[in-house]
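Take a protein:
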Amino acid sequence: MIHKTTILFAGLVAAIILSIAIVNPVNANSFDPGNIISDSIFTNSSTMTADQIQYFIEVKGKYCTDGEAPCLKNYRENGKSVGTIIYEISQQYLINPQVILATLQKEVGLVTISNPGSWRYRTAMGYGCPDSTPGVCNSQYFGFTNQVRWAATMFRAIMNNSPTWFTPYRIGVNSILWHPNQTCGISNVNIVNRATVALYSYTPYRPNNAALAAGFGTGDGCSSYGNRNFWLYFNAWFGSSTSSILIQSPQSPAVYLQSGSIRYAIPSWDIINAYGFGRFGVTPVSNSYMNSLQDGGILNTVFSNKSEPGPIYLADNGYRFGFSSYQQCVDWGFPRCTDSSYTKPLEPSVFDRMYQYGAISPLMLNGSHLHIMKDGKKHTLLSHEARVEKGYANINYTPITNPANLTQPYAKSIPHNNSLVSFRATPAIYLYTNAKFYALSYDAFLTFSSKLPTLVDSFSEYNSQLPVEQGFIQSNVALSDGSLYSFVNGKKINLTKVKHHWPQAAIIDDLKTILALRSDDYTADENSTYRTTAGSILKVENKHFRGFYSLYDYFTLGNTRPIPINELAIANLASGSSVMANGQGSVYQLASPANQSLVLTPSIDGSPCQLSSLDQLGSYHLITNSVQRLAPSQHPISTLTNTAYDQDGNIHIIYSGRHAILNASELTSVWGVHQKIPACTFHKLHLAKIPVNSSVRFVRDPVTGVIYHGEGGKKRPIFSYTAFIRMGGSTSNTLDVSNEFITASPTGVAITE
């Protein structure tokens, strides 16, 4: 059984298609019945991708509307589009998908029909519709996918010279009917290749001169149209079915594009790939044939349609993009657009081998990079927000992939307002705000990056010439409203309440909006302490920074959690004295090799007092769990005795587990001590930790052992034990005092009886 279309059916199709097919004129006089299509073109399965097939169908069927059956562009089987179905089968059987498209069109007109019926899908390729029974087809082969698969199966079997059915044709001279009506006669055809054998096996009739002269129209009563229409559609849609448009002489490695009688030298495969002509392969031609063609110069990616003078196009990835004006062509980096020797006029048969994409946009998309094309340069938009800000939100872009179209130099990139930008040429990060660039320290970057996107610019002009910095944001920044902020490790520190303690920072009002995007992580006040990135803990007072002598000092003074601060924030502060927990029970040790006695630091003047005995550690409730070392220059000025002051001028006597207090008025009125005696001074809050368990009626000189009683501003020595007992004296109310106290109190009349 011969699987072929009836000629009556094919004739009807031709008549229908005539009114709807949109094709370019093809001269049928060049039809060669023995070489309808070459083997290489017939089996070139890489000519179109699934997407390209689908796009082709959508373009050719753009006037189609769904009716009783969907348009080919909208048709699905098993969830697959027509583009996918044709592509997958073409790859499986290694048949050019363009052959399938041309066959679909010449059989039932599915590619361009405006109102397809369901019957067209049942017999889409005319497979299983023998001429012996016109209009009657074998239901075994019904269905679009089934039709395409069986047709591809037959084509591949003939190409492999292994058909499983009878094929009356072969390479060489064959007798082929003009028409199913055998009275029309038979012609001899010298078939030169298997692809042409496949076409005659599929549709076993040769078009006569009347059919060829009619183009897509109707010839005479002996005219057949199947192979004519296949050849016409293929050549009109996809270019020559017998030879590539790429030619090469054996005498030279140079490859040329043939457009009519003109040859254009192709400088690189980038140019071939831009036009998408690599899928056609290169056809060897004789040197004499090559020389017979007019030399048209060097081909580039900018061209025109010879039959449509005026519009200029750009070739990329097999698509043609139309420029709206010469200026746009110049903006895209082609200044010679008006030069016809540069913009090659291509024959329609070559022109139409590219897929129409549409008008060129002012925007170019290359990979993930979007550029505004202006003055022959690429102005890179670094974000969608930048695209919106520049007014291109609703303007489509033109995708460009070919290196030949990407030679334009880069201009300055375009970030969007309030963004961070990094450049390949430097590790620095910039803040872009109000059309200004600010260089950022790493801490400032971390602070802003939590709220602002970081845009990467790897190629623009800024990578050879970095942007002019408006300023450098390291740590502290002020606003004109008087607020002050600092940045560290991604934290925002509000220093406004204590700004009088800090040096004046640069005022950058451009940051006002950005700073408002995030709340303060810390707010400093007069009691705040700070921890630098290096680990130092300090206070900031009157534009000085003061470290703490120890962690004990830090916590003893009531500090808890320090605010983080950058080292750069304190760079312009002067260094002040260390902060100690003076007089609050802290114990220090001199770092002097000659004297490493334990010492106490009082609160009033910061001068340390040396302990006279280790017993004083317990009696004075001194803290020994974290003994710190003082610099040798900080020598003690006095020795701690059993007598000490608080900051209110009261004297505390601490002796043998007893604690008594002489207030300041008693010191003067009773004992006559009018000046501060040499004694250590403690913070009253520390002394309050020592329970008061005694009163002071009598004092004893620890050196001489003499007991004194205070009266009228003098100390009266008691030389009679009887008198001491009579006056109420006892060991519980008699306390040893320092020799300095004895010396400071005037001596009165002795008590003897």
Remarks:
- Residues 1-24 have pLDDT under 50 and may be disordered.
- The chain has 23 helices and 45 strands.
